[in-house]
Specification:
With 385 residues, the chain is an alpha/beta fold. It is built from seven helices and 16 strands. A hairpin with a 3-residue loop joins β13 and β14.
């Protein structure tokens, strides 16, 4: 995986910039991580958070299904989050035999703006009060940021996602959802057909990992089972063609170093932070690796995409660089991704939902993008819908 770094303001092909080196910001410093609540190497087996019946159903169907989105917190205007949650509930209820989702993996920014415990009910527990599945994930920069520095960074996230034992927290209010038992804010989910390694990219724009987390990530890549797909989950994306954030050259270099040291590539990379949907393909050493941004999970303000050098809307598929193609995107609707994984195939489907001014139930619900990755052969098929 070769690295091409761009300084601020430098663009790639077609005038589109997909990563940059972010300058330090005094209001977004690196925040110390909380101590882990479980034992190293911070693994959690799926059978500890779903029922025995669900595990049996996954094995019988020979596939596992789950939802994955980020940036859900419905601060200021909760309607978008409520609409996405409602259609995720519908996806569960309408699932065909063998296609019932097992859980929801959150890519961070659960609560805006500073991860306050006081906002967990309105931005997390109440919107998903009828969502029937476990919700696990990694924190985002807003979950770890601080306004009140007397409260440790990620204190509320740890209480509600990294409990030592499942229990109903004070933040849950009238919800019966229990706190999850993740062993750390960065951790690995062991599941049938897939290993999901989730890292915490902290608060600074562009992301930052300390030496301990990088060493842990190297160990996870080196030891990840070869007979399962390997997914990397992070908050700050490596590639993004949006106007506001762009991707992170720093996180790209970090992943490059991990891959070079372990000789193990992720089969797919998922991120949030940017409030829209984008899917890139990276071609490297005979492999095709999807890099997906799915950060339109409920935060009210969507992020627009860049325009081409001539000022026109980006037409996909668009080869940004010789080895990187923008395959699909959506910057004007919220939505969610459904993933299905088997012993050789990873299938992703991204569905957009109605806008708040449209009928929430009868308004347009559209499968915008779908792809199938043969993760054993590292070959990708895409459908632009």
């Amino acid at each position: 995986m070769s690295i091409t770094s761009f300084s601020n303001g430098t663009t790639g092909g077609h005038g589109v910039r997909i990563r940059r080196i972010h300058a330090p910001h005094t209001n977004q410093p690196f925040r110390p991580l909380p101590p882990p609540t479980g034992a190293a190497p911070y693994h959690l087996s799926l059978d500890r958070i779903v029922s025995a019946d669900m595990m049996a159903a996954i094995q019988q169907a020979k596939r596992m299904v789950f939802h994955i989105i980020g940036d859900t917190g419905g601060v200021k205007a909760p309607q978008a989050q409520q609409i996405v949650a409602m259609h995720m509930e519908n996806d569960v209820q309408n699932a065909a035999s063998g296609g019932y989702p097992a859980f929801f993996y959150h890519l961070g920014d659960v609560v805006y703006y500073y991860g306050e415990a006081a906002n967990y009910y309105s931005q997390f527990y109440e919107p998903y009060i009828q969502y029937p599945l476990p919700i696990v994930g990694i924190p985002g920069n807003h979950d770890g940021d601080l306004l009140n520095t007397s409260v440790p960074s990620l204190a509320a996230f740890v209480e509600n996602f990294c409990a030592k034992e499942a229990h109903i927290t004070p933040e849950a209010g009238d919800s019966t959802r229990e706190a999850e038992i993740q062993p750390n804010v960065y951790w690995t989910l062991e599941a049938p057909f897939v290993t999901i390694v989730g890292i915490y990219t902290n608060v600074p724009e562009g992301g930052e990992l300390d030496a301990d987390q990088i060493a842990w990530l190297e160990g996870e890549f080196a030891c990840a089972p070869q007979d399962r797909a390997l997914l990397l989950a992070m908050h700050h994306p490596i590639y993004s063609a949006d106007k506001l954030h762009s991707g992170s050259a720093h996180m790209e270099q970090m992943l490059e170093q991990v891959v070079q040291k372990t000789q193990r590539y992720p089969d797919a990379v998922f991120a949030g932070h940017v409030h829209n949907y984008q899917r890139f393909t990276r071609a490297i050493n005979g492999r095709q690796i999807p890099y997906i941004v799915t950060g339109a999970g409920g935060y009210w303000h969507l992020h627009a995409m860049q325009k081409s050098a001539g000022g026109s809307v980006l037409q996909v598929p668009l080869k940004i660089e010789p080895d990187i193609t923008l395959e699909s995107y959506c910057d004007d609707r919220h939505g969610f991704m459904r993933l299905e994984v088997t012993d050789h195939v990873l299938t992703g489907t991204y569905t957009t939902v109605p806008r708040p001014q449209e009928s929430w139930s009868a308004g347009p619900v559209r499968v915008l993008d779908s792809f199938t990755l043969d993760w054993r052969e590292h070959r990708l098929q895409s459908w632009w819908l």
